[in-house]
């Protein structure tokens, strides 16, 4: 049986990228630099060279082999279809000229941030321990959803950083309530530099890992049950046989960026990446 979390998020399919309803905005709006994640440089607002005229990726099945690993871990949280179909009413940036394209590029990152907040708020409302702040979370959810439906001018003028700060205070309170029931000493590793850290088998139950840099960290067999992973950088982190049961504020892009195995235990809010089985 699916958990309450999975059932609730299934009702919010708009918080997952739907490329069929988007005009390839992530392939146009976002910049990237030649690196281990991307084979070439691309400026913001410039269509990726692999983007076809039908807004599909020409190398989608071979992104990792072609050096575009960064594309395989990205998710817009549904911002692409929101901007394409709601903000601009289904008007294609290719057909409506450069000014229209520029306007879409301007607001896509803003809506993406708002949709990420919607994901966290939706998850927070599934946590029984957070009931004392559920009314505040619902109000924040409604306000954020309203903001995503603003016009181009309203979105362009939005102080999204201020809104994030407001929501973050609620999410931190949610985290405190959710982790309070976990026994033992709960480590506070907020924004910790843990690049390449040797944490094999570490007891990180209920740990506060907000914004922690865990790039290439060895978390093999680590116990991360009930940990707060909001904003943690898990690129190339080894989660082989790690237990993330009940970990919260973990997103699909974070999981996609890590390495794992069939023995890795994940929360129901995310799915096991296909490339884990292929060892990619």
Explain the overall architecture.
The protein has 280 residues and is mostly helical. It is built from ten helices and no strands.
What keywords describe this structure?
280 residues; mainly alpha; 10 helices; 38% helix
Question: What is this structure, in a nutshell?
Answer:
The chain is built from ten helices and no strands. By secondary structure, it is mostly helical. The longest helix is centred in the middle third of the chain and has 28 residues, at 97-124.
Write the layout of secondary structure elements.
Layout: H1 4-10, H2 26-29, H3 69-73, H4 79-87, H5 97-124, H6 134-148, H7 152-157, H8 160-180, H9 252-257, H10 274-278
Q: Provide the β-strand percentage band.
A: under 5%
Order of helices and strands: HHHHHHHHHH
> Count the strands?
0
Mean pLDDT: 92
Oligomer designation: single chain
In helices, the fraction of residues equals: 25-40%
Radius of gyration: 19 Å
Low-pLDDT regions: none
Q: Can you count the helices?
A: 10
Overall shape: it is globular
Q: Structural class, from helix and strand content?
A: mainly alpha
């Amino acid at each position: 049986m699916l958990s309450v979390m999975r059932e609730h998020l299934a009702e919010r399919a708009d918080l997952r990228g739907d490329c069929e309803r988007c005009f390839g905005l992530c392939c146009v709006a976002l910049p990237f630099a030649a690196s281990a994640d991307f084979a070439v440089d691309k400026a913001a607002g410039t269509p990726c060279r692999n983007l076809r005229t039908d807004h599909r990726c020409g190398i989608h099945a071979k992104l990792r082999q072609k050096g575009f690993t960064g594309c395989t871990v990205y998710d817009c949280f549904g911002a692409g279809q929101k901007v394409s179909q709601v903000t601009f009413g289904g008007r294609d940036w290719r057909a409506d000229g450069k000014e229209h394209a520029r306007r879409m590029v301007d607001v896509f990152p803003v809506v993406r941030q708002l949709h990420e907040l919607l994901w966290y708020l939706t998850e927070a409302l599934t946590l029984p321990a957070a009931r004392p702040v559920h009314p505040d979370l619902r109000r924040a959810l409604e306000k954020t959803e309203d903001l995503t439906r603003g016009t181009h001018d309203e979105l362009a003028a939005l102080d999204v950083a201020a809104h994030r700060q407001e929501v973050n205070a609620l999410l931190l309170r949610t985290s405190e309530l959710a982790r309070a029931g976990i026994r033992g000493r709960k480590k506070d590793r907020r924004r910790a530099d843990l690049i390449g850290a040797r944490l094999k088998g570490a007891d990180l139950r209920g740990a506060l890992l907000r914004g922690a840099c865990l790039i290439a960290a060895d978390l093999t067999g680590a116990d991360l049950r009930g940990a707060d992973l909001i904003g943690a950088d898990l690129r190339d982190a080894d989660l082989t046989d790690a237990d993330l049961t009940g970990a919260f504020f973990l997103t699909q892009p974070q999981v996609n960026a890590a390495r794992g195995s069939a023995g890795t235990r994940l929360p129901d809010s995310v799915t096991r990446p296909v490339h884990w089985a292929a060892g990619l």
